[in-house]
Amino acid sequence: MKYLNIVALLFLLLLSSCATKGQTGALGGAAGGALIGQAIGHSTEATLIGAVVGSALGYMVGNEMDKYDREQLNQTYERGPSNQRSTWVNPDNGNQYSVTPQPSYQNPTTQRVCRKAEIDAVIDGKRERTYTTACRDDYGNWELQR
């Protein structure tokens, strides 16, 4: 529990400073990942692993994906055939994305429809790969899980 308090405090401090979108996304992802890691693993190691994974995903989504990219990602979750790659290039910054969604499933804990995906991105010439899960919210929109 001590680690969760530290992560929450860091999250609040970063949000109150003049942080970039990427830093805010990374810290938000780290906080969410730490909470999920603790809930699942009930150990310091699980909390730290969750924080690292959440931080990477939060940074990429917060800093690199703009509104156009998030719309494309949402469309892939909504209409993309399972195990078939969807690709796009952001017309404003040239970042390239390739997303391979998996079949949807019902989360046994939340009863929400969810879908995992692998995201390959080339951002400023640097290749990144991450794995995400999105679940439908109460309004039917896809919401990335952190």
Summarize the structure.
The protein is of the alpha+beta class. The protein is built from four helices and six strands; from the N terminus they run H-H-H-H-E-E-E-E-E-E.
Explain how this protein is built.
With 146 residues, the protein is an alpha+beta fold. The chain folds into 2 domains: 2-63, no CATH class; 67-144, no CATH class. It contains 4 helices and 6 strands; from the N terminus they run ααααββββββ. Strands 1, 2, 3, 4, 5 and 6 form a 6-stranded antiparallel sheet that branches. It is globular, with a radius of gyration of 16 Å. The two termini are 19 Å apart. Residues 3-24 have low confidence and may be disordered.
Mean residue pLDDT: 76
Q: Compute the gyration radius: what is it? A: 16 Å
Please describe the biggest sheet, giving its number of strands, its sense, and whether it closes into a barrel: 6 strands, antiparallel
Instruction: Give the topology string: H per helix, E per strand.
Output: HHHHEEEEEE
What is the count of structural domains?
Answer: 2
Question: Strand tally, please?
Answer: 6
Instruction: Name the overall outline.
Output: globular
Structural class: alpha+beta
Number of helices: 4
